[in-house]
Amino acid sequence: MMKNFSKFIIAFVSITFLSCNDGKKVERTNQDLIENKNKALKEKLEIVENFGEFNKKFHSDSIFQVSRVDFPIGGKHVSGFEQYNWTRKNWEFHAIPVSEKIEIGEYEHSLIKTDSLITERFWIPDSGFEVERQFKLINNKWFLIYYNDINL
């Protein structure tokens, strides 16, 4: 009888010990899930950069501008027979901010805005001149992702 009682005590202590460890594992797993959810929520709540403020700084600060061009970008420079893709080395500072309305002589202008993409175009109809640039929201910050400068 004592032998059976000893086996019972050993089994009871073993089960209790294993249950406690499983409880700690479940508790840790739940804590990890909560931490991951909190991290994801914090990232979503991060403030989205205001395009107006970005636009002013981008077109007035050359160092900031280069930091916010997502090289290599789409588009290219074409002027007569000269043609090349944009790189950090051949980048030309852009001083004219994106604007709702720009009236510059014979140039046409269009601006398409969404929450995460802004596309601006300038062109002279039937002339071979067109400039297009696109800004995209990436990780809550604005970047220039496309610049096409065509002058044939």
* Total of DSSP H or I helical runs spanning 4+ residues: 3
General shape = elongated
Helix-strand topology string: HHHEEEEEEE
Q: Indicate the low-confidence ranges by residue numbers.
A: none
CATH topology of the largest domain: Nuclear Transport Factor 2, Chain: A
What percent of residues are in strands?
25-35%
Query: What is the name of the CATH architecture of the largest domain?
Result: Roll
Task: Specify the biggest β-sheet.
Answer: 7 strands, mixed
Number of strands: 7
Average pLDDT, rounded to a whole number, is 85
Query: Please, how many domains?
Result: 2
Q: What structural class is derived from the secondary structure elements?
A: alpha/beta
What is the highest CATH level, the class of the largest domain? Alpha Beta
Helix content: 25-40%
End-to-end distance, in Å? Answer: 103 Å
Radius of gyration: 30 Å
Description:
The chain has about 150 residues and is α/β, with parallel strands linked by helices. The protein has 2 domains: about 45 residues; about 100 residues, Nuclear Transport Factor 2, Chain: A (Roll). Helices cover about 40% and strands about 30% of the residues. Strands 1, 2, 3, 4, 5, 6 and 7 form a 7-stranded mixed sheet that branches. The longest helix is centred in the first third of the chain and has 44 residues. The mean pLDDT is about 85.
What does this entry show, briefly?
The protein has 152 residues and is α/β, with parallel strands linked by helices.
